[in-house]
Amino acid sequence: MNQTRLSTALKRPVVASKAKLSNNSVLDAGLTAGNIDMKALQKELEKDPKHESRITKLIKQVKKSYLALKKGFFASLVALLVESHNSTVAVIIIFIEFLQNLAFCFADVEWGYYGNKYGYVLILFQIEEAVVKYTFPQAILVLVAIAVILIVTMIVLAIYVVRSFMNSDFNQGVWPLRLLRTLVSMLASIFFLPVMYSLLTIFTCHNGLHDCDSDPVFIGLRIVSAIALPTFFAFTLLMSMTYFNPNPKSPSLSARPTARLELLELSAKTLLAAFFVFAIENPILRESVTLICSFSTALFMWLYIPYYRKEMNLYRFCLICQVIWGSIVAIVVTVMGTSDELRDHIFFAYLAGIIPGLILSYVSFNTRQNRATSFEIAVKNFKPNNPDAFNVWEAEEEAKDGEFEKRFWSESQVEIATRFLIGSEDPKAMEVADKIYLFGTKKFPNSSALMVQYAIFFLVFKEDSSVAASYLKKAEKKWKLIDTEFTIYQQQQEIKSGGATVGNKKLDAVDRVEFKQLMKEAKRYYSEARASIANFWLAIMTAEEDEVADTAVLMTHVSQMERSDQNATEAFNRLIQRYPLSVKVLSSYADFLDDIHNNHEESELIRRRMKRICDAGLSDDNTLTTQVVGGPTSRAASVAATGINSHMTKKSKKAFKEYRKQVYNYSRGNSTLLTWMVRGIQIFYMALASAQLYVSILGSQMMTTGMTWLETANKCRDAFPTIHTSLRQLQSTLQPNYPQNTSLLSLINNTLVTLDENSLKLYGWTNARMSVNNIWALPEIPIVFYNGAGSVNNQTIINMTLMDATSVYIRRTSEAVAYINFNQNIAQLSSKLDTENLDWRFALDNGIVTISNAYTEIEHTLAAEIRNDIMSVQYGQIGIIVFCLISLVVTGFYLFVPVINRARTERETSLKAFLQVQF
């Protein structure tokens, strides 16, 4: 049916169709022969977008949306890259992450007295454990809520940034991009483990919260955490691609070609957190997982040498080996630590093995790294061209390049072998590295990652962007992982930006986005101001001759003019403050002054400034130089400046030179002074913040300790009524072979054991407190003793210390219980206890009132002491805050105000001198 329709439709316009379809060989042959191939023609018509099926259109639309989304996502990742990491901060962050990993070797493991103290310090770096341990168990709810808020904030910011890059418009500004960069840098490093730990811990009843399974708050947070956990993990893995800087010449210690080490570490941290939350009762399993994760990270570093700089590789490898050593000893102390003394010996052995472990890991990895990056081995296997060779025969006898090279078992080893170029400018080394890459591309022809590294070699060392771009295109056509695909995109953007400088200031990705956005806003306000002025005059000119223009309409245009003028002026002022040497900014601002403000004098001064900037070579806006000096106004400014310069005397030129020198010295002096002042103030306030944190931790620890003391004292006090009641109940129901006798005797014995343990603990904790010491040390507890065997008539009251009274009470009550247990089958035993058993009378007369009241007094004293301690901590916090406020006012008044006034005076003096010399 379709073929009949097509043949009928094509009978008449065959000649015209032939001209249109001449590019199709099949149809041309059919038309020439006079026989139309209807199937081929139908396929051609189906390729026409008008004849595509709905599924094909949907697939194309989805593919287009996916490519746009991926482009926006990659652009966001490029903007999140920090091209110049602070080496000191990177070293500190890595050390904190090491302490967090090492804490897994000590968490919930009995290391003995000294090992547990050491573990308490390490647990402080796992923020979740520290907060819950030293505050209160319900703090986990607050931590989970904070973690969820941070994750939601990060996701919302990421969506905004990706959409902004897709639409090429940051309508809400660039601050979300900067905030997202900060959150990613924190949550993907030292805060990853606390966030993951908090989200996982909510699924268990933390620290004995037995009602959490029925608590609606816990249930709600568990549902939220179940959604947030995979989202946070997946998002952080994607964001980990920003943790690299593929530039071997980067001065940063943390520069590296890929971010796969971070990917491995984040996965290992997630696994560790899961096992330490859900396998809390199996320490061997937890420590084994710690050993496996740390060993896999060390093995990855050994094989792939992730960082460009040798120092950083050695630093991280030595730290991860210490985690391996700690996990091994943790397994040993768990298996063999049967006593506190033995555990202490094992901990001392662990401390003794730290230094030898560091030396061993340093020497072994340094040997591996030196061999992998050896220039001598590279020269031996890839000989550079020797123009002084004796004859051709000698060259032919030499081995081919790479014939004896045994190091290249993977494409990543090719890039590692060229790291001898770092810090070297030897042309021979450059040639050898080029040969190594050529050999690698032949050995691994399908490796897109190696093609990317070869492109980076051309871009960084040879500064040949054209060859680098060609290798990036080759890498695009090969199969690749997403991180390699992102590296290709990032390098292509780097080539397009060409260094990305505005004025004499080098910009990173975020600064480039911000500069474009600010310029876009300034130009938009500039256009709005021009349009509002045009509309104002148009409203006046279009009014009828005998009518007056509508005042309301004119006032609307005037308001729009003022608003647009103010917005444009503020936008240009922000640009000039941030980029004072940018010719592009100055040129746009001069045009704005001419068109909107009609201020030709100030615009002329700005164009003269642009001319001097271009002549001095201080601006890198090279594409704008012709625009600056090409127009008639700028040519007039150039002539005027040249005329002024030509009429300057030698004395004026000398004065101008001296003026420039003094301005430089003034600015440098003020800049140096302000820099050191700011650094000193930063250190000062960091110390105050540390003091505030210490006081807060001390206060929470005091509160936790005090609550433990009060709870123990309350248990001791409650033990005496329990024992007294049980003794009386036992006396009333005492019968031979009565089953209830056994249960009551067992209850009394268990209560006595608990009382003995709690009283010893309480004595050890509170004996040093001066307010409680009198109760423990002075004999102030009146105890009733009965004299004479078998007689309860003779009494003696002896004052004893509380600890002695408790010990005597426990001993004599235990003897009374033992007597009943041995003689419970004797008839009429219950009636003989009060008159014949002195231990029985002692337990009934001294426990429930005398000794119990003493423990009540201890509770009151401890409560008052804890209240005073908390008040002292609060006063300390208030004092620190007041001191911060006073120091802030004093610092601003006595330090910054004089420097700012001095800078303002010098600026005015310099401006006056400049005007006098220049004009």
From TrEMBL:
The chain crosses the membrane at residues 73-99, 139-162, 182-205, 217-243, 263-280, 289-308, 314-335, 347-365, 875-897. Signal peptide: none annotated. It comes from the Eukaryota. InterPro entries: Tiny_macrocysts_regulators, TPR_TmcB/C. Pfam families: TPR_TmcB. Residues 503-613 form the TmcB/TmcC TPR repeats domain. Keywords: Membrane, Transmembrane, Transmembrane helix. This is TmcB/TmcC TPR repeats domain-containing protein. It comes from Rhizoclosmatium globosum. The lineage of its organism: Eukaryota, Fungi, Fungi incertae sedis, Chytridiomycota, Chytridiomycota incertae sedis.
